[in-house]
Amino acid sequence: MLGPVLLAASRSDAIRRIVSAAPVTRPVVDRFIAGEVLEESMAAVRNLDQQGLEITLDHLGEDITDRSEALRTRDAYLALAKALKTEGLGVRAEMSVKLSAFGQALPGGHDIALANVTPVVEAAAEAGTTVTLDMEDHTTIDSTLAILAELRRRFPQTGAVVQSYLFRTEDDCRALAGEGSRVRLVKGAYKEPASVAYQDKREVDLAYVRCMKILMAGKGYPMIGSHDPRMVAIAQELGRRNGRTLDEYEFQMLYGIREAEQQRLVAEGHRMRVYIPYGTDWYGYFMRRLAERPANLTFFLRSLATRG
């Protein structure tokens, strides 16, 4: 029952204030968030690049309710694209965006988000990199996939995320597994009703494997977003069965989590991409990481003890 409680807490302003003010929070956040400003995130990018790791960067923020905030998100990503271009890191680092941070939830939000994210995708292409559209709660999926289709007309390398806990995701995988399509598969980290999503962890895991099979058998480029050793091993086996070389799919893990495993996969010749979040609006991201699995709470607290 802890997971749903943490997900509910992720949207509570009162709990946000308590957690943000707690002295115990900051050291944990610092380990899993690569700073609050662009310069700090770029230092993390350079460090990981030197270790042979690839990167995707997420400027934290979501559920924007004001047009000016959406424009600030756009401008933050334009600054990020410029920094990647200046440092020649476009080949190694891409960007991940949440369309709710670009105004998707506003009245007329679909068109607003598309208008705001388009210059970011253009700037990414100019920097030699690309953008992946993060998936949020199930009410936004149709809009997000429609924006993806629009962006891919000019920028076919634009990526999408699918979440295995949703009943619809296997069909979405089939639709997205075409030539050139980049798809990140994750289990899902939002509180979803039983009418649209599996509630049992075993069912979510089984769905994840079914989705991997679809993506690995397709003509697109699968991005396996998981820290689960079983899923990593299954992905490797599916890659072999489908005749994929090690550069025809990749693994993705979160910044600050399972770093030794990230290095092991790189040493084996796999593409390993680290998801780097940065920015001041870290609370929602942080709480969802705790809620994904109740064991994560122990993990984060153990990490704090180790750091201390």
Automatic annotation (TrEMBL):
SUPFAM superfamilies: FAD-linked oxidoreductase. The lineage of its organism: Bacteria, Bacillati, Actinomycetota, Actinomycetes, Kitasatosporales. Residues 43-299 form the Proline dehydrogenase domain. Keywords: FAD, Flavoprotein, Nucleotide-binding, Oxidoreductase, Proline metabolism. The keyword 4Fe-4S does not apply. This is proline dehydrogenase. It comes from Streptomyces luteireticuli. It catalyses: L-proline + a quinone = (S)-1-pyrroline-5-carboxylate + a quinol + H(+). Pathway: Amino-acid degradation; L-proline degradation into L-glutamate; L-glutamate from L-proline: step 1/2. The keyword Isomerase does not apply. Its EC number is 1.5.5.2. Its cofactor is FAD.
